[in-house]
Design goal:
about 25% strand; globular; 9 helices; four-stranded antiparallel beta sheet; three-stranded antiparallel beta sheet; about 35% helix; 12 strands; binds zinc ion; alpha+beta
Length: about 260
């Protein structure tokens, strides 16, 4: 008979509460087709990010009412929330973290570990409801006339910044990612009543790159203290087979997710 599709096909499901926005989603396992689609998407940073977001969104089978479509999903989910959703997707699709390479920080040899994803899971929920609107003023230690306002970026902030900036010559993806947490710069100029305010992504990137190195450290530290400690973390203890050194490893889920997609 011609194939008409399986009558009884069930995908495993898993509920995720996002640590930043406290929304409840149910995700289902990826299908073989979806895994194959991921492999074709690895050309540019913009494509990878777009595809990752779409892949997670398509695997959601229950979502809060406030999320009407893909665009509102991007605007209401933070990068840390995506980590949690990705964890859910990973856990329900693969279950195990296989052959993850750890470099021993004592003898520098590499060794692979395999572990159940759920054994590594740590969750720290953001304690308020203002994550999408909160900005925090950072007084810079060196450039005292400049204030930086930081925020927690959403998926929409990320994709907009990547689309505007990555194609511009000389702007590397790493610097773009680092500036996602900056909402705006304000510079007090003696002759002016109002500060000069910069909100354009390109201006923010250029402003960021021109700062003295010590100012960047203060921006990053303030971000970590305010937003950065909330979210999920995949942490595990491992022992080096060569020298016995005990290591607490933190697993990079996005990187590992793509590794898994390729290793089937
Ligand atoms: Zn070692």
């Amino acid at each position: 008979m011609p194939f008409i599709g399986f009558n009884n096909l069930k995908y495993p499901e898993y509920e995720v509460i996002t640590p930043h926005t406290h929304l409840s989603f149910t995700v289902r396992s990826l299908s073989v087709q979806e895994e194959e689609n991921m492999k074709g998407s690895m050309m540019t940073p913009v494509k990878v990010t777009e595809h990752l977001n779409k892949c997670i969104y398509d695997a959601i089978i229950k979502k809060p009412e406030s999320i009407k479509d893909f665009q509102s999903f991007l605007k209401q989910v933070t990068l840390k929330d995506r980590d949690a959703l990705l964890y859910g997707l990973y856990h329900i699709t693969y279950e195990e973290i296989r052959n993850y390479d750890i470099r021993c920080s004592s003898c520098k040899k590499e060794y692979p570990i395999t572990i159940k994803a759920s054994d590594t899971f740590n969750y720290n929920s953001y304690p308020a409801e203002d994550i999408l609107t909160r900005t925090v003023k950072v007084e810079l230690p060196v450039s005292k006339n400049i204030s930086v306002f930081i925020k927690q970026p959403t998926l929409d902030d990320e994709i907009q910044a990547l689309k505007t900036l990555v194609s511009i010559r000389g702007s590397n993806i790493d610097a773009v990612t680092q500036t996602l947490i900056i909402d705006r710069f304000e510079e007090d100029v003696t002759e002016l009543k109002q500060p000069n305010t910069y909100t354009d992504r390109y201006d923010i990137l250029e402003g960021f790159k021109s700062l003295p190195a010590r100012d960047r450290r203060k921006i990053n530290k303030t971000y970590l203290d305010t937003f950065g400690n909330y979210g999920i973390e995949l942490k595990m203890k491992s022992y080096c087979p060569s020298c016995g050194f005990e290591e607490i490893a933190i697993i990079d889920l996005v990187e590992n997710f793509f590794r898994m997609v390729y290793s089937v």
